[in-house]
Amino acid sequence: MEEELAPLLIVELLFRAKSMTDLPHVIKLVSLFLDSSVELPLHKACQRGSIDLLERIWDSSDVLSSVTTSNRYWTLRRYICTDRHYRQYQFTLSMMDAVRLKNLEMVEWLTDRFQGYTV
Length: 119
What we know:
Blueprint: H1 9-17, H2 24-34, H3 42-47, H4 51-66, H5 76-82, H6 84-100, H7 104-113
C-alpha cells in the first residue's frame, strides 16, 4: 500500500529539459532536498486540514528512512520514524487538531498510521 512519493513538478521539468529523465533516483533526491513542505511537523499539516500534505510528509519520511545516508543528517522526517516518544507527541497534537477541526477523514488517517498510539 506504500506509494512512491511524486517528485516536485519543477524538478521533473528541469530534468526533462536537460534530457536527464533516465535518472529517477536523482530526480527523487533533488525533489526531497528542495521540498520544504515536508519538514513541517505533522500537527502543523493537520492545522491546515490537508490530507494531501499529511500524505506527502508521511511518504517522504518513509523514503528518507530507507535512503542509506549517515546518521549525521537530522530531520523531523527521520525523527518521526526513529523516536517513539516524538511519534506519540505528534500523534497527540495531530489528533487534537483533527478533532478540533471535526475532520473525521484526518482522524482515520492518523489512526491508520499510528496504530497502538493513544491520546
